[in-house]
Each structure stands twice: as structure tokens, then as C-alpha cells.
Amino acid sequence: MPKVLKIAVPVPLRRTFDYLPPLSRAIEELQPGVRVEVPFGRGRKIGVLVDIAETSDVEVERLKTALSVLDEAPLLSPEDLKLLAWASRYYHHAIGETLASAFSVLLRRGESTAPEARRRLHLANLGHLEADTAIKRAPRQTALLRLLRETPEGLPSEALARRDGDFRSAAEALVRKGLALWQETPANSWIGASAPSAAPLRLNADQAMAVSAVTDSLENYRAFLLEGVTGSGKTEVYLRLAQEVLSRGRQVMVLLPEISLTPQLEARFRARISAPIAVFHSGLADGERRRAWLGLQRGEAAILLGTRSAVFTPMKSPGLIILDEEHDASFKQQDGFRFSARDVAVKRASLLGIPVLLGSATPSLESLHNARRGRYRRLRLTSRAGGAAEPVFRLLDIRGQRMIEGISSRLAAEIAETLARREQALLFVNRRGFAPTLICHGCGWVAQCRRCDANLVIHIADRQLCCHHCGYERALPTACLACGDSELYPLGLGTERVEAALAAFFPEARIARLDRDSTRRKGQLQRLLDDIHGSRIDILIGTQMLAKGHHFPGVTLVGIVDVDAGLYSTDFRAGERTAQLIMQVAGRAGREQRPGAVVLQTRHPEHPLLQTLIHKGYSHFARACVAEREAAALPPFSYQGLWRAEAGDPEAPRRFLTELAERASRMSAPAIQVLGPAPAPLARRAGRFRWQLLVQSAKRAALHAMIDRLLDVIPEIEEHRKIRWSIDIDPVDLY
Ligand code: ADP
Ligand code: ZN
Ligand code: ZN
């Protein structure tokens, strides 16, 4: 029996596939982590070698032979492979697709890892000798050989490409004849790079304590939770630690919820760290992405700055993982491979034996709970660095108050005072567009999406009605589509509406709106941020986007137009989310010398969430919230898996999940609760009916074992062909 290659092929099946080694490569040369092209079905696929086995369950005559091995050396290290295998098991996601997610697009498609620009052609030993006879009849090869003899530092491959004529194939011919060879730029070329432009700050006592705690643990796995309000100097701690790790010749991974929204953070890293930084942002072209990926994999780039999908990027010598704003829900991927980058980062650090630092002004309850259990070490920055004052919170009771477009006269007065002092005001509104509903005064008709169970949102700027769930758009009607009445009213508030109202209140003020609509085009966000920093804007209105990492030093008043929506949601995480959002938005105010005020408009000023948060702070609130979760046996005191099913047929998803729930009950696992099936909160989206089934247990292993068994029986359930299903482990959004 010849040896067998176990290949993870990117298909949605939870298994590897066996192949015989390709004829072109000796099996002894092969190591797990190389890409292999294999015949699959009627086509070919690029898989990853995960193991070499002595035997196969398939008879040897029936095994296909792999076509070729694409890489000389593994692209994934044994630790990378271990991490991906763990993620595949833990998230119950197909191994081939899980591994594929670690590669950049071009590499996934099988493109070469040799980025032309980094290769140089050198003269081989043989080329020094009188070997011209071998190439006498090839004038380009002769010319190239002569050139190589004159350039001991070698010729960059792009220099070859610039020459007229086909010098690339001449080069390849010389390489084949052993007269020349390609060499890569050496790794770790960044060590000892030039001095940074900005000097480090003197750390305060809390920061120094945090830096030394992590530094002491640089050779071992340890998870740290760095808790400090916005402005307390967390980023300074990251920078200091990054420098320490780089000076030891190792790399740093920094993960953020959003990169395009936080250009300031990237700028600070660039100002302070002279070593090459590989940034993964959504605007990268495929080729640039591959270059960044390879730079990290080979150890040529020192720092990775990226969002959740970068967490699997292979690195040559990682020494520290930092994850900023660890509470942010965007670290959880919501479709396809539904992993939590935070949890993967912690696992990766533990496999690598390096520390991981999770930072936040408003840590998630999961992380606080882990800190309490001693799994994470909690580090706290207790005051604002640089001496800025904490903002003052005020609840504005708007019951019975006269409101104009959602703004009470008291809030308007506060804005007026802020403007009079020539300071900036920031208003948070949780929805973009003008208003979330268009209603007819004549008959009560409401504009709804035809394909979703949702109302269409009015967008005045484009004179359109838009569905925020499926993207459907239509022109704003001038008369009711049901009765023809022309008295149509907007209900509720969006950023555009608040913007229009404030423009009427304060005709002199310069007002700007920051949301996904106003920043869609390239450069718009940067221009807006520049205008705010350059004090060319007096009032800024925005959505969640405002809460993410921006520093607005001139803002001294933050108004939260409507906090009530978050207080009475059915999602058990709504309270935590609302509290985090309030604190994050508040963190934008009063950054430098001027103290800030945060004003919350509410009809429920006595609400315990608001009272605790405002009078006692986030930590207190979080402690109360954790106690509630414990009493209700909700995460982090239990573990969840959410099955989702959807189809164009309204009945099939329900029938499928009902059957799945019955199978689950028959497995009689007493420690596991099976809840549902129930329609999803958005029961119809883009014409598809959506249902869900929640499985929950205090015993993680038991839960995962049951999910595995359910996955095995799915093919036996008749409806599985008619629906699309998925399993979401540790769901953060029950949608
Ligand atoms: P965070 O990341 O927690 O929001 P930052 O690191 O951005 O906090 O720090 C907030 C502000 O305080 C920044 O302007 C930063 O330059 C300044 N700062 C941070 N640490 C110090 C320090 N030790 N001494 C003086 N200023 C500091
Ligand atoms: Zn009508
Ligand atoms: Zn829709």
C-alpha cells in the first residue's frame, strides 16, 4: 500500500479526501500545509495537505492521484493547521472551507506564492564558469548571463519584465540549466529598521503596570483583559508592547472591528513603528492582499493590522496578539464560516504559547466572566491619560415634553450653548435614512418591502424608499399606493431627519451627517473626519459608526436622541449592547482639556440599566448584568448553538427544524435544552422564509457532541434538500 495524502478540499463536506501522491514529487519531500491540486468530481480543486497516512478506507485502485503540489514549503505551520482543525471542529464547519479561509483569494485559487517584485535572479555557481556553450544559440540568455555576471546583487524580477523581449522565459531557461537561480528577499529584514517619527509617551502607573504584566508573560500563553475608558491610554499600551515584541524579532497581530473607520489608529502605529506594517482593509486589491499575506507568512512584515478575517493569517514568528474593542459584535462572522475572531485569537495564542491582549472600555460579559474565573487576567486603566476629564452624564426626561423631530427643547438649548462656546456637538441616532416608516393618513397603508417582513425606510436625499434588509429600492411615492391619498407621513427618526431638523433650528451652524449613506463614496469619510478635526463642522449627526474609535477632541456635548429603543428589546443581549453603545458614544466627548457632557433623552429615566450605568459606571452595570445571566442560565453561564433554516417555501424550514428538534429530544441528553423551532425575528427576508432552533446547555462538550450527532442525521431528514441550513456556535445575534 503506498502512502496516502489526506487533503482538505474546499467543499461543504465535513471530511478530508484521500489521494495518491503526485508523480512529480517524492512523498518524503511533502509536509502538511502545502497546497495540492487534485481532481475533484469533474473538475479540479486546490486543497491543502493536512496529513500523510499509511492506509486509506478507500481501496487503493479507486484512489485518484493528486495532480501537483503547488508549494515547495508548507504555507501553514503545524500550529496553524492545529488551529484550523480546532476551528473546524468547534464551529462544525467543513474542514476544507475552514482551511481555505486562512488563504488570500489568489492563493486559494492556486496562484504562485512567488510575488514577482520580491524575487531576484542571481548567478548560480555554474554560471560563473565558462558555460556559454550551452546557450550559444539563445542570444537573450547569453545577454542575461552577461548582465548577471555584472550585477552581484541580482536582478529584481520586475527589472526583467521591464526589458524589451521575453527575458522572463530566458531567465527560466537559465534557471533550468542551473546557470542562475531565484532568491527571495531575506526574512526579518525589518529588524533594525529606521527610527520612528513619534517618540513614545511616558507611561502612567496603570499603563506601566499593564505593559510589564504582559511583557513578563511574552514567552508563555496568557490572556489579558485590558479595561479602560476611551482615552485612558490603551492604544499607548498596545504600541509599547508592540515595540517590545518587535525588538525581540517577533511579529504582532492587531485585530480591530473596522479598519476603514479607524484611520487614526493605523496612523498612530505608522508614526511610532518603523517596521513594515501589513494592513488588511476592504479596499485592498487581490494582489496587494496576497503581498500582505506573504509578507506576514514569511516574516517580512512585522505587524498585522486587520479585521476578523485576518485572525487566521499565517505568521512566521508571532509573539503577541492584540484585539481592540473586544466587545464588538463585528468580531463574530455572521454568515458562511461563523467564527468569533476573539475566541479564535485566544485559542491561537494558547496554541502558540504567546500572550493575547483583549482591550475595551466596555468589556463583553463573556470576557468579564472569564476574568472572574481566573482564565483572563484583568488589567485596568483607571483614569483618562493626558489628564482629560470624564464626561458628565445627564438623563433628560422627555415625557410630556414638546418635541420637534425627536429633539426636545432642552436638548436644543444645550446644543445652542455648545455652539455659543464655539465647541462641537455630536448627536447619536440609531438609524440611517429619514424615517423608518411611511404611512398614509387616509387609509393607514404602510410602505413595506415586498420580499421581507419589514417596512421600507424613507431616504429623502435620494428620494427613495429602501429596504435595509434586502437592498430593494423604489422611488418615493407622492401618493398612497393603496388609496391614492397624497397625505403621506414619515414615522420615526433617522439621521437625515434629525439633520434636517437641526438645520432648521440652527441655520448658521455647519452640520454634517456620518452614516453609511454619507460615507459610501471613496474619500468621503476621510473628508468628514478632516472637517471635524479642522473645526469646520459644528454639529455632527451619526449612527453606530460614530461609536467606533474616533477621537473628536472638539466635541463637548454628546446627545443620544433616543435610548429607549434599546431598553425593551427581547434579545437578552440588548441591555449589554445598549450600555456598551452609550459608553462608547460618550467616549467621544471631552477628550482634551474641556470636560464633556452626555445627554440621554428618555421616557424611562428610572430604568435600572440607565440608573446603574450613569451613577455607578459600566463595571457595576456589567456585574449586575452577569448576575442576571447567571440566574437565567444564559451565556456565559450556558453555551448555545443556533440552527437556522430558510427556503422559498414557507413550510419546509419549519418542518425540517421540527424534525431536527425531535431527533434532538430522542437523543435524550438531559443536560441539553432544545428551544423551538420558532420563526426568526425577521421571518421573511428577500423572499425566503426563515426559522430557527436553539440548543443550549451548561455543558459545552455535551452540546457539541449532540450537534455532531444531529449533523450526521441531517441527510436522513426529507426536507433537507429543500432548504438551506446552518449552525451558528455561540451566536451573538439571534437573527
Ligand atoms: P484609548 O486607546 O484608551 O482610547 P489612547 O491611547 O488613545 O487611549 O490615549 C488617549 C490620549 O491620551 C491620546 O491623545 C494619547 O496620546 C494620550 N496619552 C496616552 N497615554 C499617555 C501618557 N502616558 N501620557 C500622556 N498622554 C497620554
Ligand atoms: Zn392610503
Ligand atoms: Zn427587503
End-to-end separation: 50 Å
CATH topology descriptor of the largest domain: Rossmann fold
Total separate domains: 6
Could you estimate the helical fraction of the residues in percent?
25-40%
* CATH architecture field of the largest domain: 3-Layer(aba) Sandwich
CATH superfamily placement of the largest domain: P-loop containing nucleotide triphosphate hydrolases
Mean of residue pLDDT?
90
Structure description:
By secondary structure, the protein is of the alpha/beta class. It has six domains: 4-102, PriA, 3(prime) DNA-binding domain (GIY-YIG endonuclease); 117-186; 205-336 and 344-361, P-loop containing nucleotide triphosphate hydrolases (Rossmann fold); 389-433 and 493-627, P-loop containing nucleotide triphosphate hydrolases (Rossmann fold), CATH 3.40.50; 436-491, no CATH class; 639-729, 2-Layer Sandwich (Alpha-Beta Plaits), CATH 3.30.70. Helices cover 30% and strands 23% of the residues. The protein has a seven-stranded parallel sheet with strand order 12-13-11-14-15-10-16, sandwiched between helices. A six-stranded mixed sheet has the order 5-2-1-4-3-6. Helix 1 runs antiparallel to helix 12 (341-352), helix 5 crosses helix 7 and helix 8 packs parallel to helix 9. The longest helix has 15 residues, at 618-632. The model has no long low-confidence stretch (mean pLDDT 90). Adenosine-5'-diphosphate binds at residues 201-204, 207, 228, 230-236, 385-386.
